[in-house]
Automatic annotation (TrEMBL):
Span list, region Disordered: 1-20
Pfam families in UniProt: CoA_transf_3
Identification of the protein by name: Crotonobetainyl-CoA:carnitine CoA-transferase CaiB-like acyl-CoA transferase
Natural source organism: Roseateles terrae
Gene3D superfamilies the record matches: Crotonobetainyl-coa:carnitine coa-transferase, domain 1, formyl-coa transferase, domain 3
Key words, A-Z: Transferase
Amino acid sequence: MTSQATTPPTSAAAAPSAPSAPMALQGVRVLDLSRVLAGPWCSQTLADLGADVIKVERPPSAGHPGGDDTRGWGPPYLKDTEGGDTSEAAYYLGANRNKRSIAIDIAQPQGQALIRELAAQSDVLLENYKVGDLARYGLDAPALLALNPRLVFCSVTGFGQSGPYSDRAGYDYAVQGLGGLMSVTGERDALPGGGPQKVGVAVADLFTGMYATVAILAALRHRDATGQGQVIDMALLDTQVAMLANLGANYLCTGQAPRRMGNAHQNIVPYQTFQATDGHLIVAVGNDRQFAKFCEILGHPDWAQDARFATNAQRVRHRDVLVPLLAECIATQPRQHWLTAMEAAKVPGGAINDLAEVFDDPQVHHRGMVVPMDHPLTDRLRLVGSPMKLSATPVAYRLPPPLLGQHTEAILAELGHTADTIAAWRQQGVIA
């Protein structure tokens, strides 16, 4: 990595450029004091829907580069116009578009005053500080709701604002383990490679960000109806437990903890990967009719009439007999042979793509899931697009992920502060 200090341009635009169509959250201001992933994922979703998100970051100081920790979580880093590394990590870029960055030191009284000033003019405040940290600065929910009773104050922590674990730091990996996900993820213990396995992306963080988004939108609707803000207490562990979904229900109905099944399904057979002559494919049979069609494709229509396999319940009970029969047959032909036949017969399944293949896929291109954006440091920025497709209020990609403190002066000017005052605060280290 080539470390580069990023001096914010003094002529940064004061506000996001106007989209060509109305946006669902246009006029909503979000003061985002969160960092890393769960909080920023939430605020990026709100920003994609039109909210003006002001990302509050730590100014650079001795021993700390400043900003969201993920700015330095690389490689990989964004490439500049010459192909060299910039200071912006891909991790940070993936969760921070459509936001404006202001760098404020909230440890200083004047920094705290600026946060209060911004909160008084915001609809939502999002934060992921440890429980009690913001209270030390007078920036906790009771203090800010007293200042702005219409504020929706959303806290994201590992374990919530109460309970025996509330003081613990929360990390996605640990929560995947503690919350049960790793007990049902990975190959079966008795097979080669068996044992606990985390999911390949930080799903506890991401799901918490999405649940937080839903909660904030619900709170805004309540606020608009009643004039009252409220506090939202989001916890990674709560989310992890909730997102076990049918597996959690399986346990509560039976008292038996589900175990790891590798690429197989707990409740459906056949619903797993199989090895063809040239690689793996997915078979996702969802009902008995699809199973009968699949048996015809395999040249064994009699399997669908076998009492052991005729219904899904029987297939689950006899999976150790059925799956080897299917595997032996599928192993005789290449993947595309089976995928073409399955598509024609409307039997669900698919290829297993790496990300190069994903982003080269014509359907992914058609759906606009790769978004090029202008960036102050490069013309090479491409981001993963939003999956939200709204007919009347579409997502707009207005701003690239901001440089650290890129919009500090513009945001403070919006609050009515003069250039001389802003310069003095910068000299004192209150802002950057």
